[in-house]
User: Fold this.
Amino acid sequence: VAPREAARPCRIREGRALQAITGLGMEAMESPSRGGGTFISSHLLRLPTETRTKVFASAASCQAVLRILSPIARHYCLRACFSGEVDEDVVANWSASRKNQGNNHRRAVESLLDLGVWKKVLKDGGKQANNKATYKVNERFAEKLRLILQSGVRSVWSEPTEVARRMLPDAEELRRLSQRRWDSVLLFLAGGDGQNTGSGPLNLEEVLTRLGLLERTSSVGSKRKRDGDEEGGVGDGTDTESEGGAAGPRPALRTTPEGYQFLLRPAEEQVWRIVGEFLSVQCGLDGESGAAAVSFLLQLGFCEEGKVCKLSVLSGGGGDAIARVARALATLGLVYPFESPESPGEFWVLPTHLSKLLCGGPGTGGGQGAPP
Assistant:
């Protein structure tokens, strides 16, 4: 049998395995990662190595990380997960048979190293000249990936009970409510009538200011002098409406040029910049709470429409920190939290159509903005 024909069944099995792990169709498997993948990677890169390793303690998180990788990087992970390590020259040969794959190979390896999935170790401590290196797979990541390959993916999402279903909004109403909340966030930034979340779980004014999308002005006059116009909106100093509709002065705010550019960015980027800044302030980038928060967001990317999950299952030990994250996501319209009617004090989450923006999963629009 010709070598090319002999290798074909192996590639087919490999492709089917990756399809089962990532939840992507074959067409998506052969194309670069879409949607929010770039923004998830950017946030993961901000995490300390120790925190990133804690994220890999969750099988769902490892599944989400694998999903955002390029097709070549996904295959590299699958090939190396059982051996735990692979020589540098062996990896180079995996793509050597294909034309014009040098750049893709290099980017795939770099992404695995940057995310901490692989670690480059020089043989003999690098003492010998022209010494080749070995790529070692993160032990936790390899362990979870092997578990998924051997046992399959266990979904944490389930159908709501009949009692819960009667109190939850239907699909059309849920889409309308979530979209309205997200549009309100953008409207607030643009200077319209969107609602600031004030002292709630997500202080939108503070987050947008820290991101440089809004700025506080010392007075109305200074704002006009800088802008050279009399336009109203976020920065005109005349808005006296506070949370709940009560009258009261609010510090003058002005949308920055970066803020207007932000409004034109893909919805995936908008969501991740806001959520990422919230996490860095509320949960930090290190420690158990930071890792649990990121794992929670990654698992939301694999939610199933119309299904619910108990918040404690998604928290990964994050406790109150994850509850705050869930309330903040509800403010943005990404989830619909509710208390179980059968078990008072037990909270569940119902993902909305916007939740998949967190992982750029199927149905997010592929980076073309928020779904209608």
The radius of gyration is 23 Å.
